[in-house]
Amino acid sequence: MKIKVAFVDNPIRGFEVAVRLAEEAPEGAWGGVKRLELGIEPVDTYYEVRGISLATMNWNSAVRALHGQLLATYARQLHGLSSVDGVALLESMASFEQLRSVDICYDQIADDALLRICPDHLESLVVRGLPANHRWPAPGGSDTAGRVVFPRLRSLGLIYTRASADASIQRQGRRAWAVEVHLPKLEHFWLVCRGGACPFLEVAQLPPVVDSMDVTASAGVLESVARLPIAVARSITVTLDADRTPDALPLVSRIMERAQRGCARKALNVNGPPPAGIECAALTHLCVDTPMSVQAAIELIQRLPSLFGLRLKNVVVGTTVLPLDVPPGPGERAPAPLSTSLRDLAVRFDWREPFFKPMIAATQHLLLRTPALATFASNVPPRYPMADFVGACTEQCPNLARLVFARYRR
Known about the structure:
alpha/beta; 18-stranded mixed sheet; three-stranded parallel sheet; 21 strands; 23% helix; elongated
């Protein structure tokens, strides 16, 4: 069972805060609560549950007091904890004997809070809002180097923010020490760090093989990731920012090479210029966020022979992109197929009404030149019967008979 915090904005009494079960449950279900989700959400009606309720004009103190009551009540039976207030966590003096999963936002005292709620049996940890220069605290708050061991942790997510220079200096003066962080059982690693460096990567002791790794980072951080002595067994995902793509492409190839034989997914998300320089032959999935032409998309597919899934969020269509294709007649040859294993293609065209026919031409051209395609998603208006075109081409392109069409979704 899960419980959530809810509130009603009362114009007379201020915010009224209450606790409710996350789903319908029989009488007595409160004794079976195993997870607290302490994010705040609005509700239409206010009701009181088990006497844990507050009415106050001071929103922060209300939330902190409510969190403290919940922690004191359920700490010993909790398996999961998320969005908890750090001050309430420390003041509760609770003992988290059964805790398995934690999702917490960093605040001024979250270093101490982390040490309080990270027992030996913790299996999943996500820390959000870490300052760019954050260094893991030594056990017991000591100022000397040491080590922190998570013997059972299987999933770790670290999301850093871009702190201002002044805040960074203040934080470094208070928490300047670092410890080795040992993660012998880690399977899933999620990192978001857009700063110049990631101190965690300097002290992390990771296992030789992880199941999956998902990294959103600058070129400087990717360089540290590329030096990690680990291999990836199942899935690698790298996301690049717009202003860092050219510098990071060689590092992406090095990171992708960490995959073991049989790794099913090697994915790259590009939030910048089209990756004209990428030559990562092992790449299986690619997502490009910025504008590119149909011809650039075709050249991209040709350069990546192992590509299995491609998502293009902004394909630019003009009046002179391609002539409108017609289905090849009997005995006529279809356009030369690309040498690709691409099976899943999702395209969002940036089009206007005058460019409707060029957009259809671009769609037809892509379909005829990708022989292994199984699924095609796009924002082509439903008034154009694309299935009719496919039906007329199945003799020259038999693979189109099995093609599945879908609507493009963000």
